[in-house]
Amino acid sequence: MKTLHIAFVALAISILLSCMQNDTRYTTLSAQEAKDFLEQHPETFVLDVRTLEEFATGHLPNATLLPVQELEQNIAQLPSDKNCSILVYCRSGSRSRTASAILAAHGFSRVINMQGGIIAWSAARFPIVVPSFPK
Q: Domains of the chain (ranges plus CATH)?
């Protein structure tokens, strides 16, 4: 009986641990880790999922804008190679988590969510591109 009880507890712990693991199919990196990754993998597709207005205030170098609200219906605008690395960011990290999950659900296998978004990137004083618009 004691052996059965121990086996049951071990099974319950195993199930609990598997449920607690990150159930996402993407990786999350800090701003520093994302910067390091981009330096090591300059071919990475950088996806900004904020609004056009936010993007216009500054964005990561080489970023492509595709607001999270428009991501599903515009998935064809992303690289056709589903194995390419895609770094996703937003303002603080919330919308990029949503976008990362959407990308993973669409079969992209190397999705990287930047934790803390452009706020964390800017706080670390990493480069920001501020577009200039003709007056």
A: 23-123 (3.40.250.10)
